[in-house]
Design a protein that fits this description.
The complex is a heterodimer of chains A (about 270) and B (about 400). Chain A has about 270 residues and is an alpha/beta fold. Chain A has helices at about 5-15, 35-40, 60-75, 80-90, 105-110, 110-120, 140-145, 160-170, 190-200, 215-225, 235-240, 245-265; strands at about 20-25, 50, 95-100, 125-130, 150, 150-155, 175, 205-210, 230. Helices cover about 45% and strands about 20% of the residues of chain B. The chains are: A alpha/beta (about 270), B alpha/beta (about 400). Chain B: InterPro entries: Trp_synth_b_CS (IPR006653), Trp_synth_beta (IPR006654), Trp_synth_beta/beta-like (IPR023026), TrpB-like_PALP (IPR001926), TrpB-like_PALP_sf (IPR036052).
Chain lengths: ~270, ~400
């Protein structure tokens, strides 16, 4: 059983909603990445989505795009992202780590090499925003290397296609709560609830919901029906400008703890 | 790579040109792209739609555009005869209108009232704003802040036509960033919005659709060559940024194996300088803006900033069909520097009384190089994709003049 599957199984048996924070590797600073990862786990993260910076993040809003630009300006590349996960793993063997990013860095690095290096570093999964199931073959070497490829479903996903996405899903299915970019403020909980219920009837994997979750209140609302809640832009915003690694870790902890509490109060 | 017998059958149903193309987009865009693909595949063979398109090309755009024999230029060069396909004479001054008319008609058939577009040099933005005015559609154009500065006249032109021009200040503030921003708008407003992409890039079906609408250039040129010269040209050439005017010219000639096909990319300050936009000549296969193609990026896959004196060629990717033509060996892609393009601009202006767009000046420079190597009875057909009025400020500034 993969680390991702084990984590979701534990959540299910404990009746808890998963909490999945996202932040961009290298932002606010390269030396804060590993301390922030540990701080997030201490504050209740069940799985960490680590953003691999990309120059042209088409599906992201300005918050994550700027974080990407800042990280790239500091010279953050794949090798360092893998190093950070390796360092994180020396103290945390249980928390799954999913790299989130775009196809081009994988293509240029070579998908087989990317997969081997990621697995060796202790990465569990990849979520490639611009690799829908149509292009699933391109990521084949990643899966062959042992990474779980996470797929997305969106409000625009048709019913026929949803069945295909659900069939392809491994680890968990990421439901994009509204048609838009990350960090936008358009969340309508009622629509999402209905849709997630439909997905859960078809998918054999848990369903995580992201896009537009900003705080304890919105997280708790989504946590009513989702297996896990993903929270990204709001965290990235909070981390931005932290003076050093200690402050970044403190901000991460202060940001996530109330969200964890709100999710747990419900269950 | 396997031997290609018929170049007209690409892309396949999944939008592939060999290893290139496809639909590398966020899940949210899959359904709208499928809806667009279904509508377009139906319309492209619909006789009423084709008639509607052709009527506008004739009476609104002013097609067919002539093939003009640049005799004085050819004499100066002293080699083959240089023939110019005069897309600069189209309404709005470039080939771009062929595509925007076509896509606006598709949008109308799909019931979408709001049009968005991205633009580099501003030519596609102007062509989009123009057809939106013509069809009564709302129009929002995304443009890099750097390009807005470089192309003030086109920005004002778009506003005169009723479009809203949104400056994009992220990344390098040029075409690729405008494209990212337009994609984001589309993801967010997909229900009522049609995205008119200006080049043969982007996810399927855009590379096919934009090519089909521009392919009128090559179809016309091929018939005109046979009519005026009794034969096909020996070489055809066009500038390649995203590659829409080039594929427009090339496509009808791809199965004519005796016609040599040469694309001119922007080599900027020289490929060795690193300041260029020659994705095919100096890039590598990757994934950008929804398709697999040649891209300019570093070893970590980060897209690199490009340079060209012409905003319209300043793009780190290229249409997937060009990537396919390069790998199959059917077309050659070579770099033309800023200086060579400017020299060609001046030479054409003085010898023929034609101010070419800086983009098209790259093709003219390449045509001159090709002609020089060939005997006088050979024919080099060059796509003069746009007129240079928009560039006079840029050219003056480079020469230290302020107008």
């Amino acid at each position: 059983m993969s680390r991702i599957d084990r984590r979701f199984a534990d959540l299910a048996s404990g009746g808890r909603t998963g909490l999945v924070p996202f932040f961009t590797a290298g932002d606010p600073s390269p030396d804060s990445v590993v301390p922030v990862m540990h701080a997030l786990v201490e504050a209740g993260a069940d799985l960490i989505e680590l953003g691999v910076p990309f120059s042209d993040p088409m599906a992201d809003g300005p918050v994550i795009q700027h974080a990407s630009e800042r990280a790239l300006a500091k010279g953050v590349g794949l090798a360092r992202v893998f190093d950070w996960v390796r360092e994180f793993r020396t103290r945390d063997a249980a928390t799954p780590v999913v790299l989130m990013g775009y196809m081009n860095p994988v293509e240029i690095h070579g998908a087989a090499r990317f997969g081997a290096e990621a697995v060796a570093a202790g990465v569990d999964g990849v979520l490639l925003v611009d690799c829908p199931i149509e292009e699933i073959a391109a990521a084949g070497p990643l899966r062959d290397a042992g990474l779980t490829q996470i797929f997305l479903a969106a409000p625009t996903t048709t019913d026929a296609r949803l069945a295909q996405v659900c069939a392809a899903a491994r680890g968990f299915l990421y439901y994009v709560s509204f048609a838009g970019i990350t960090g936008a403020d358009r969340l309508s909980t009622g629509d999402v609830r209905e849709r997630v219920a439909a997905i859960r009837r078809q998918a054999s994997t848990p369903v995580a919901v992201g896009f537009g979750v900003r705080d304890a209140t919105s997280a708790a609302a989504i946590g009513e029906f989702a297996d896990a809640v993903v929270i990204g832009s709001a965290l990235v915003e909070r981390l931005a400008g932290a003076a050093d690694a200690d402050e970044a870790a403190a901000r991460a902890r202060a940001f996530l703890a109330p969200i964890r509490a709100a999710l747990d109060k419900r269950t | 790579m396997e031997r290609i017998d018929d170049y007209s059958v690409y892309p396949d149903a999944r939008g592939r040109f060999g290893d290139y193309g496809g639909s590398y987009v966020a899940e949210t865009l899959i359904a709208p792209l499928a809806e667009l693909d279904a509508a377009y595949q139906r319309l492209r063979t619909d006789r009423a739609f084709i008639a509607e398109f052709e009527r506008d090309l004739k009476y609104y755009v002013g097609r067919p555009s002539p093939i003009y024999h640049a005799e004085r230029l050819s004499r100066q060069v002293g080699g083959a005869q240089i023939l110019l396909k005069r897309e600069d004479l189209n309404h709005t001054g470039a080939h771009k209108i062929n595509n925007t008319i076509g896509q606006a008609l598709v949008a109308r058939h799909m019931g979408k009232r709001r049009i968005i577009a991205e633009t580099g040099a501003g030519q596609h933005g102007v062509a989009t704003a123009t057809v939106c005015a013509r069809f009564g559609l709302d129009c929002v154009v995304y443009m890099g802040a750097t390009d807005i500065e470089r192309q003030k006249i086109n920005v004002y032109r778009m506003k005169l036509l009723g479009a809203e021009v949104v400056p994009v200040t992220s990344g390098s503030k040029t075409l690729k960033d405008a494209l990212n921003e337009a994609m984001r708008d589309w993801v967010t407003n997909v229900a009522d919005t049609f995205y008119i992409i200006g080049t043969v890039a982007g996810p399927h079906p855009y590379p096919q659709m934009v090519r089909d609408f521009n392919a009128v250039v090559g179809r016309e040129a091929r018939a005109q060559m046979l009519e005026q010269y009794g034969r096909l040209p020996d070489v055809i050439t066009a500038c390649v940024g995203g590659g829409s005017n080039a594929i427009g010219l090339f496509h009808a000639f791809l199965n004519d194996r005796d016609v040599r096909v040469v694309g001119a990319e922007a080599a900027g300050e020289g490929i060795a300088s690193g300041h260029h936009a020659a994705s095919l000549a100096a890039g590598r296969p990757g994934v950008l803006h929804g398709n697999r193609t040649y891209v300019l990026c570093d070893d970590d896959g980060q897209i690199t900033e490009t340079h060209s004196v012409s905003a319209g060629l300043d793009y780190p990717g290229v249409g997937p069909e060009h990537a396919f033509l390069k790998d199959s060996g059917r077309a050659d892609y070579v770099g033309v520097t800023d200086d060579e393009a400017l020299a060609a601009f001046h030479q054409l202006a003085r010898s023929e009384g034609i101010l070419a767009a800086l983009e098209s000046s790259h093709a003219v420079a390449q045509a001159i190089k090709l002609a020089r190597e060939l005997p006088q009875d050979r024919l080099v057909l060059c796509n003069l994709s746009g007129r240079g009025d928009k560039d006079v400020h840029t050219i003056a500034a480079r020469e230290g003049l302020s107008l």
